[in-house]
Specification:
With 619 residues, this protein is α/β, with parallel strands linked by helices. The chain has 20 helices and 20 strands.
């Protein structure tokens, strides 16, 4: 007789079956199993995973103002406010241990669902047991493409698999080639479990499809004591890009061996795994500056979706680390499972499975840069868009695709500039000493600050105290366009360059600019700057639209704004015109660069607006 979950639990549930359904729904807790390596070489992965799952459970069980399923309110409302309880199991990176632990969780701990498992090889056996007992399994962070193609009904994966990740890598290669970068040859380096094998298979197919030549394809034994022979082959092949698929221990050994043998790849684009782990960068970070890794998560997303930063802070308080590609997927795996259990209003495996099949979660309600979570007939979410991240200045920044990339990071990569430090600090920080010491050590050709006034003043004062004088400063406006900064530290920033929208030099060509500036100065005691000029024009454009609408009706004003086509000569700005695209953006608002010289700003770029040559480097 085939053993099913129904057979195994029949005796335990016979009495419960006599209760009314509504009564059974009022359970006080829902038990979910979590299987990870909690001992052995991958133990740190499991420890970090525990913190990620604990963070997700806290959000479900308590009340938080996040646009995330189950964050608002306490517990699972579909089950009378039942709280989620997690039971952790240690698979020790052993597929057979994983099989045994999955069965124990189901038969002894009575879990209604399981989430796991880091190693794809373990996901194979765990998912087989879940299928046997009809218990839903979410493969939170396993990336082997073959996992969802085995005809299992209770297997689900919200995150991308390695074919999706590898496609993003080759899209990046294609984009870089179009920009003139030489990328023709590849070296594949992969461990011999299902993760490494599936990754290499995907990359081999994509290389053939896209016209790239694989000059080395090296499979090694996972957890090998030596990689000397393999690295010698990589060095001899000397590919344009090295593409490793290695877990943390192997990744560290690979990097150390490359250093010992004097092999420095032109570029490394890694299949995540060890190359997303803090342990690798703690061990060999000085040797892998500039490495690129695929990923599912980008902390840069917090700028567009503030809850990402807040939830990351909760995780960091527990773990001492920011979310990475694994911990973010682990977090979302539990959120998706809990959401399905809540919608199922039951702990029955079939009902939870039906709810998972019906999942359609918008990307904005996740912490990921995904379009949405929606499973296909094989349990795979095909809308989990990957990103590429680059390790720069001690942290990862998003470089691809364009709509996820940090603007300056993306431009640097596109134009061939090297970022030697990328330092994020807390706004209104009482001290920037540590940060300036890092800047001084990096000694870049250009410092590019994005700081409001108070922080900008503190930055400049701290640089002076520590004897750090950048070769050049090109600022992202903000505090570096404000009179208050130059009143406080102007003697220390002679020659600083700031981007802007406004140039008082325009008054020489357009006299009304000077006259309107004089009116503003009479009221404020200051000349227009980048902010006040844009504020002035914002009201002029709105008033013009209301006038053309001949109405105060919102729809009519909107129609008038859509129809706006204001020549630059009828503004106080160096813009071509004001005309909005379908998303409401004026793409003809040409910026200028201004340099602080002799106590005032002068326009130095672009040529048609410039009144002076740039002083470079700063004096």
């Amino acid at each position: 007789m085939t053993i099913t979950r129904r057979n195994v639990l029949l005796g335990a549930t016979a009495t419960a079956a006599l209760l009314p359904i509504a009564g059974r729904a009022q359970t006080s807790e829902v038990v979910i199993g979590v299987i990870y390596p909690l001992s052995g070489a991958s133990a740190q992965i499991g420890v970090d995973a525990q913190k990620a799952f604990d963070t997700a459970a806290d959000i479900v069980n308590k009340n938080y103002d996040f646009e995330l399923p189950l964050a608002k309110g306490e517990g699972l409302p579909g089950l009378g406010g039942a709280k989620v309880r997690l039971v952790f199991a240690d698979h020790q990176a052993d597929p057979q241990k994983g099989r045994a632990e999955a069965e124990r969780l189901i038969t002894q701990e009575k879990v209604c669902a399981i989430v796991g498992t880091y190693q794809s090889a373990v996901a194979v056996t765990v998912s087989q047991i879940c299928e046997r007992y009809q218990v839903p399994f979410i493969s939170a962070d396993n990336s082997s493409p073959s996992l969802h193609r085995r005809g299992l009904k209770f297997y689900f994966r919200a995150a991308p698999h390695d074919e999706m990740f590898s496609t993003a890598m080759f899209d990046f290669f294609d984009a870089m080639k179009k920009k003139g970068q030489k990328i023709e040859t590849l070296s594949l380096f992969h461990e011999d479990t299902i993760f490494g094998t599936d990754s290499a298979n995907a990359q081999t197919k994509l290389a053939a499809d896209r016209g790239y030549k694989i000059v080395a394809d090296i499979k090694y034994r996972a957890n090998s004591p030596s990689l000397t022979a393999e690295v010698q082959q990589l060095k001899a092949a000397n590919a344009d890009v090295l593409m490793p698929s290695s877990y943390t221990t192997d990744g560290i050994l690979l990097v150390k061996t490359m250093a010992e043998l004097g092999y420095k790849p032109k570029s490394i684009v890694a299949q995540d795994a060890g190359f997303s782990e803090k342990a690798l960068y703690d061990a060999v970070g000085d040797k892998v500056e500039g490495v690129i890794s695929r990923g599912s998560f980008s902390l840069d997303l917090a700028a567009k979706r503030p809850m990402v930063g807040k939830i990351n802070a909760m995780y960091k308080e527990k773990s001492g680390k920011d979310f990475n590609d694994y911990s973010s997927r682990q977090f979302m795996g539990l959120i998706v499972m809990a959401d399905a259990i809540n919608r199922a209003k039951s702990t029955d495996g079939d009902k939870i499975r039906e709810a998972l099949v019906a999942t359609d979660l918008p990307g904005e309600q996740t912490i990921m840069p995904w379009k949405r979570v929606k499973f296909d007939e094989m349990g795979q979410n095909n809308d989990a868009d990957p990103v590429l991240l680059q390790y720069v200045g001690g942290k990862f920044v998003t470089i691809f695709p364009a709509d996820s990339a940090n603007a300056q990071t993306k431009l640097a990569a596109d134009r061939g500039y090297k970022i030697v430090a990328d330092i994020k600090y807390r706004a209104n920080s009482p001290s920037l000493t540590a940060e300036v010491q890092q800047l001084k050590a990096a000694n870049a050709d250009v410092l590019m600050p994005s700081s409001y006034t108070t922080d900008g003043i503190l930055l400049v004062k701290t640089m002076a105290e520590l004897g750090y004088k950048p070769k050049s400063i090109v600022a992202q406006d903000a505090g570096f366009s404000e009179k208050a900064l130059y009143d406080a530290v102007g003697d220390k920033v002679e020659g600083v360059i700031s981007r802007g929208s406004f140039s008082l030099d325009l008054a020489a060509k357009r006299p009304m600019v000077g006259k309107i500036n004089a009116m503003y100065k009479e009221k404020s005691g200051k000349d227009f700057n980048d902010y006040s000029s844009r504020q002035f024009m914002g009201l002029i454009v709105m008033a013009d639209a209301i006038n053309r609408a001949k109405s105060t009706d919102g729809d009519k004003i909107r129609e008038a704004l859509v129809a706006t086509d204001l020549p630059g000569e009828q503004t106080i700005m160096p813009w071509k015109r004001v005309k909005f695209d379908e998303m409401g953006q004026n793409n003809d608002a040409d910026p200028v660069l201004l340099q602080y010289v002799g106590g005032k700003f002068v326009t130095i770029f672009p040529a048609q607006a410039a009144v002076a040559e740039a002083v470079w480097p700063m004096k």
